[in-house]
Design goal:
Distance between the termini: 75 Å
Radius of gyration: 18 Å
Number of domains: 1
CATH architecture: Sandwich
Keywords: Signal
Shape: elongated
CATH superfamily: Immunoglobulins
Number of helices: 0
Largest sheet: 5 strands, mixed
Domain Ig-like: 14-99
Helix content: under 10%
Strand content: 35-45%
CATH topology: Immunoglobulin-like
Order of helices and strands: EEEEEEEEE
Structural class: mainly beta
Signal peptide: 1-20
Number of strands: 9
InterPro entries: Cell_Adh-Cytoskel_Orgn, Ig-like_dom, Ig-like_dom_sf, Ig-like_fold, Ig_sub, Ig_sub2
Protein name: Ig-like domain-containing protein
Length: 101
């Protein structure tokens, strides 16, 4: 008797949820925390944060996908996007605008 085992892997795009208001209005010196939650995705997606379409350094992002901006300044203002990608379909993306008074 010959036994054959097949494994089926279903590829799926991730979905994301951004847990912030839009826009975010902050005063200079405040700490701003942006939380991005990734759901699903096979293979496991990678998360990146971008500001005005430029990728932010990994050191400012913790393992759960939270971006912390300590002591925000007017130079930190802009559109921040959480992007989850696993090379299946289009990357999932959610954005918010940060306004610094």
């Amino acid at each position: 008797m010959i036994r054959v085992t097949l494994s089926v892997f279903v590829l799926a795009s991730p979905t994301i949820k951004l847990l912030v208001e839009d826009p975010i209005v902050a005063n200079p010196g405040q700490t701003v925390i942006l939380v991005c939650i990734i759901s699903g995705g096979e293979p496991s997606p990678t998360l990146t944060w971008v500001r005005n379409n430029e990728e932010l350094p990994k050191k400012s992002i913790n393992n759960s996908g939270t971006l912390t901006i300590p002591a925000i300044t007017t130079e930190d203002a802009g559109v921040y996007s959480c992007v989850a990608s696993n090379n299946v379909g289009n990357p999932a993306k959610k954005s918010t605008n940060i306004v610094v008074r």
